[in-house]
Amino acid sequence: MTVPPAARVEGLEGMRGIAAFIVFVHHFLLIFDPSFHFSEHTWKNMILNPDLAVSWFFAHSGFVLAWKSRNMTASEFPRHVIDLALRRYLRLLPLVLVSILLTSLALSLGFIHSPEYSKLVGSSWLSRYLNFSGNFGDALLQSLWGVFFNFKSSTSFNPSLWTIGYELISSYLLFFALFIFRTGMKSLAGLSLIALITGSWKGVLPFFLGAALTRIPLHKPPRWLLIALALIAIPFGDPAGRNADFVRGLSASVLMYVLIHSTSFRKHLAQGIPDFLGRISYSLYAIHFLVLTSFTSWLGLKHASHESMGKITLNFALSTALLIGASHLLTRWVDQPGIRFSKWFAGRVLARSHGPDGGLTLSQEV
Hints:
70% helix, 366 residues, mainly alpha
């Protein structure tokens, strides 16, 4: 790699913010332009490709979760991985809970206008969702369990959260694999092998390949190679056929490799708008569906946004402003406190799990 062994890889969060925004833009366009449908493999889908963006999310998560452990000693390793495992569900939960409960509340109050607007604009994507009444009990159960372990798109309060269950399960598979393979070339080979074996399961391949990238020895690939890899990976990120998820996962992992070694590009991602989007990216991803089904659809109904490009542009600008503002608030008041709580919880459990000699013991509480 081109980053020093002890350094934090800057710019990755900015790329995550751009990827989250791409998902929002694509879903917005699915309302107003049928050619952006997932099954249509056009040049527009190749550029604004939400599936590739999501696959890159998985590669990014695997990389970040495995990054710190790459140079750890045998004594440090178990505590670090157990700390990550204890925090993971609690780290993902708060925004899942809040976004679903807010959607349930909006349904109950009549603020969800997507079923009506989808009929007017003929959006087959928008018409699939929220065709039921908001029930607080169902929303709470879905937040705590359904999203993570029993996701059903047709009855989901937030179908964009389908990725979270894969994210959680892939995380725990990775933690188990890290315990076995630890560091070095053995870890690189083991993580890569697991990625290829489980590649047909959505999200696991890029997740494990992203983790495997942290085990590649220090090197500096030539710029022409990075450009060539990116030019190949981007079009292959919108494949069709039975192996589409596998090919897309490989493409996302290649793009992750390119980004890691593109030092100057990452510097731009670590400042300004990309950096800001990166800091609010999880909130933006979690809440954008609610914005589209409530405000965007309401504005479309009230002002017939679909009738002209100017009105669509105005709707997009206002929806984006609302989404950015709401994401900022949710990051400050929900996501960041959730991160602090997950760290506190893991620290308390680990503190009570030390034996009298100071070593970590796998107590029942862990």
